[in-house]
Design goal:
With about 350 residues, the protein is α/β, with parallel strands linked by helices. Strand 12 and strand 13 form a beta hairpin. Helix 3 crosses helix 4 and helix 8 crosses helix 9. The two termini are about 20 Å apart. The structure holds acetyl coenzyme *A. The site of acetyl coenzyme *A has 22 residues, from helix 2, helix 6, helix 8 and strand 12.
């Protein structure tokens, strides 16, 4: 099993059709294109318009990823689904996706690590493959935020940030003879600190919410919408992303200069600019998509990889460092050769 690794063999994405610009938001929120762009870099995002669910978007992205991997759906042996906007409380959205794909019987697992969820999913898939248990695993990140945002001024700090979308990859077993050339995942590194769980969260409905899932008064107060301490998130995100990238590189005796391409989570353009400046990463190596899509949480990294590939910014053999930070707080990195 010495030379057995996993690699990304196919990538797919699905972006809903309704484009929502900052000016569109300013029609119903006290905000402006200037405020949003200057604070976050976001220019537009896409929201579902035909009642699509998270698993609907994931289905389209997954089909493309499977086909780009040169596989048939029956080659997939496990589905790992990262989302913070599940179709339902239960069962997990991986089961709904599995039903849509028509591949009953295989393992279907939900990951609830928010913006970091995709990298957590990649890590689980990587280990199953390296252990020789499965050969092809579908890892999906998908979100429908637009149905769960507070579209009144009360929620404007959060509502302007998020977009809908899905990205999927197939991780496949591969043999690595020359790590400097062959496509493979070197390692993944996962972290969390629940001390900060309530700095970015949805208070209700939930089983920790007193004697009821949610009360009428709480609904009126908007407890069902995301709450965020933006400054805390910003500071922790910058520090944790820098640390976890360096942890990943050190693990495989790689240097930051050797990295060809940085695939960061897209929470805020300013976070990524700060990380790049602290780690002295040249601007041209960082691929940002937040301008176009806003923050699509678990879907962000696979969507970014997809676009980078389409634009020939990501090419075979490149060394990639991917990192994310999100609610939990959670943070993670993955170092891989594409
Ligand atoms: N439009 C206009 N004004 C706004 C908006 C808005 N959408 N939202 C807040 N404001 C106002 C505030 O009410 C405040 O007004 P006041 O000074 O009169 O009180 C003013 O703008 C400044 O608000 P702050 O919250 O202090 O603004 P800040 O400079 O911290 O920027 C932001 C807010 C952009 C959210 C920033 O804190 C941030 O980016 N934090 C990181 C959080 C993040 O990216 N989260 C994404 C989800 S988590 C993840 O993916 C990791």
């Amino acid at each position: 099993m010495k030379n057995i690794y996993s690699k990304i063999s196919g990538i797919g994405k699905c972006i809903p059709t309704k484009r929502v610009t900052n000016d569109d938001l300013a029609k119903f929120l006290s905000t402006s294109d200037e405020w949003i762009k200057q604070r976050t870099g976001i220019e537009q995002r896409y929201w579902v318009e035909n009642n699509e669910s998270t698993s609907d978007l994931a289905f389209v992205a997954s089909q493309e990823a499977i086909s780009k991997a040169g596989l048939a759906k029956n080659d997939i042996e496990m589905i790992i689904f990262a989302t913070l906007s599940p179709d339902h409380f239960f069962p997990g959205t991986a089961c709904f996706l599995q039903e849509k794909l028509g591949i009953p019987g295989i393992a279907a697992l939900d990951v609830r690590q928010q913006c970091t969820g995709f990298l957590y999913g990649m890590s689980i898939a990587d280990l199953y493959i390296r252990q020789g248990i499965y050969k092809n695993i579908l890892v999906v990140g998908a979100e429908v935020h637009s149905k769960g945002l507070d579209k009144t001024d009360r929620g404007r700090d959060v509502t302007v940030l998020f977009g809908d979308g899905a990205g999927a990859v197939v991780l496949s077993r591969t043999e690595v003879n020359d790590p400097k050339r062959d496509s493979h995942i070197y390692s993944t590194h996962l972290h969390a600190d629940g001390t900060y769980a309530k700095e970015l969260w949805v208070p209700a409905p939930g089983m920790a919410n007193g004697s009821e899932l949610i009360t009428q008064a709480e609904v009126i107060d908007g407890a069902q919408y995301p709450k965020m301490n933006g400054r805390q998130v910003f500071t922790h995100a910058v520090r944790s992303m820098c640390d976890v990238i360096m942890e990943g590189l050190k693990h495989s005796n790689l240097t930051i200069e050797e990295v060809d391409f940085f695939a960061f989570h897209q929470a805020n353009l300013r976070i990524n600019e700060k990380v790049a400046s602290l780690l002295k990463i040249p601007e041209k190596k960082v691929f940002n998509t937040i301008q176009k899509y806003g923050n699509t949480t678990a879907a962000t990294i696979p969507i970014g990889l997809y676009d980078a590939l389409s634009e020939h910014r990501l090419t075979p053999g490149m060394l990639v460092a991917s990192a994310a930070f999100g609610s939990g707080f959670t943070w993670a990195s993955s170092i891989f050769r594409y």
